[in-house]
Fold this sequence. Notes:
This protein is an alpha/beta fold. It has 23 helices and 17 strands. The chain has helices at about 35-50, 60-65, 95-105, 120-130, 145-155, 195-200, 235-245, 265-270, 275-285, 300-310, 320-325, 335-340, 350-355, 385-400, 415-420, 435, 465-470, 485-490, 495-505, 515, 520-525, 530-540, 550-565, and strands at about 110-115, 135-140, 165, 205-210, 225-230, 245-255, 290, 295, 315, 360-365, 375, 380, 405-410, 430-435, 440-450, 475-485, 505-510. The termini are far apart.
Amino acid sequence: MTTNQVFQTVLNGKLPPIDDSVKAKKYRIDKDDMFHGFALARYNLLNLFLPEDEEAQVGDSRRRKMIVELQKPRFTKTSLISRYSFDENKFNGDQLSAFDKCLKAQDYALILGMPGTGKTTVIASLIKEMVLNGNTVLLSSYTHSAVDNIVEKLIDLIPDLSLLRVGSSNSISAKVKKYTLYSEDTIHKMETKEDFDRVFVDTQIIATTCMGIKEIPYANRERFDYCIIDEASQVSMPFCLGPLAFADKFILVGDHYQLPPLIINPEARAGGLDMSLFKILSDAHPESVVELTHQYRMCADVMLLSNTLIYDGRLKCGSDKVANQVLRIPHSQQLETFTMMEHIPNDLQWMNTVFEETNRVIFLNHDNLPANEVVNGEKVDNPIEAELIIQIVNALTKCGGVDPTSIGVMSFYRAQLRHFYRQTFAHIVEILTADQYQGRDKDCIIISLVRSNDTNNAGDLLKEWRRVNVAMTRAKSKLIILGSKKLMSTVPQFEGFMKLIQKKNWIYDLPPGSDKVYENLVDTLSTTQATQKTQRLQKSPNRFKLKPSSQAVQQKMLSKNVIDHAMGN
Ligand SMILES: Nc1ncnc2c1ncn2[C@@H]1O[C@H](COP(=O)(O)OP(=O)(O)OP(=O)(O)O)[C@@H](O)[C@H]1O
């Protein structure tokens, strides 16, 4: 070690004064996260099999019996917590059973929470009960956002929350930042190393991702009463083991009908690395599982897709309000004005189908356009399908007055999403892959299926039914899917889905030329001066060339009369 290094430490206030005469030399320390990650996974596995050594703090024979030998989990007859502080009327029967199961667990319990069934709500309330009764909790999850969702709920639920959020501060949400060690307004005031140690020992709840567990100093904090892992069906087993080793009892929350751990190596997948601990334990001991089946996200039509594809009718709407919700389009009449001004014939007015509030699920089939995919090496996109989606987003937001933050655009293909990043709405409308949408929702979701080709090649991504399930369960009140009916009808995984949407009459065949109909919708509407509109009409009176006898022409004449009348011509 040289003498001219300057160290900044977390122990503010105890720094020796910096000697200005010594020229500081800057060092860059690179941390290889990947290596760190795999080293951690290997350690977690190794720890399960090492002989128990208390002094060296290694070995975990208790977990080995549960996880490797699949020992039956034990449950007490009565709840381990005597005093419930929550209002039972605020929870449904499944959720109350989940509390009951978790609080009777002596080893572990599993919560299978279908989409939007209140997993986050249940975890937060469960933690509240645990800490109010003097227990300590290690809260973990696969992603930072899932950890923060729960912590944000805890902040609202528990006054004087004793919580330490461990992790890099730029991945942590603004509301949660003050629970980290290093934020300016941290609740954890530290002057000395003893203070630092005490934060880890005295705080009732420590929250971090499964990877972030490496930041918890082992010597300082060995035991928690409970470890709770959210998104447990997405975490591969070696990473899941990390947090579990710290606690006497654990609770895993997940849904193995949604995406499993992402394992790219085919050999590792064949060896079972994509099988989460959640799935292994729930298959081995179904009695340890409690299912949350009442969902508060999707309207009944959207839910029906998922029930048909995956859940076999087990998913239910939490209330009539949820079941009957619609996407409100406050200025829908503006679309009518536009179609009149542009003389759009009735049979080309496909946006009306999108705007119809009671159309909660719509499959816009573009076989008649056609809208063919473009393959470029590994990348696949569909420019015409993208153009249609851009028009839908603009129509809903700029014409219909729908809040752009309530809309999400999703595709299975990253190359397709690039078309949307360039749009003015890109910074407000959420544009994500199906995988990134797991755990999120929007009032209106528009899915770009992309694939459309002569050989009906659907690619591999659409064949993963758990990914399709995630995609179909993100919308609350309107789900718009764009794709090729011809191609989708050949995909075995979509057979039930296609049959259902056909039976329900949810397929709309876009007519040829559909992509040109609304392409200047935004320009036209942004021209607010009625006179300007009149000039435009005079310059190009007939955008759509039709025979003089056609019904549409009669309507055009009629609409022109209406506009003329309205403008006092
Ligand atoms: N018993 C209940 N009664 C009414 N609303 C509820 C109930 N439980 C949960 N909710 C509401 O349902 C919505 C979804 O809850 P939450 O976010 O906890 O679900 P989740 O299962 O974590 O969702 P995800 O599938 O995104 O992980 C929230 O708005 C929540 O307030």
